[in-house]
Amino acid sequence: MSRILRISEAASLALHTMVLLAVEPQRTQATRDIAALLKVSEAHLAKVLQRLARAGLVSSQRGPRGGFSLSRNPESISLLEVYEAVEGPLQERSCLLGQPVCGGNCLLGGLLHKVASEVSDYFSQTRLSDLARAFGQEGNHAQG
Could you tell me the CATH number of the domain that includes residue 79? Predict the structure, then answer.
């Protein structure tokens, strides 16, 4: 099932990192600590965090106690904002082949549109605070 919905590693890192930051929004967290918790490359995570900072979603603090924190309240940040900060606008694909070959009568009917619509709705309606509550309660931050 996990292969049905493809989200890039960068977008996945962005989503997981933002939820981690939302668990303790006032705390500044070092890139190395987040990378260790998520078991990912610190260099790749740093690039993702730069994109999130450019989008105004995180603030960075330099120095020995430096790191990243949310720049806005977790209730005001949607998953769609996070995704689009890394991947650009969420676009619906109308054909699995990239170009319609079924003569306007898709082999899968309206399935692609339905899935894209549900993902878009979920991303736009879900706030970091919604996931931070569940994430913080689980105690196991690296799964998901």
Answer: 1.10.10.10
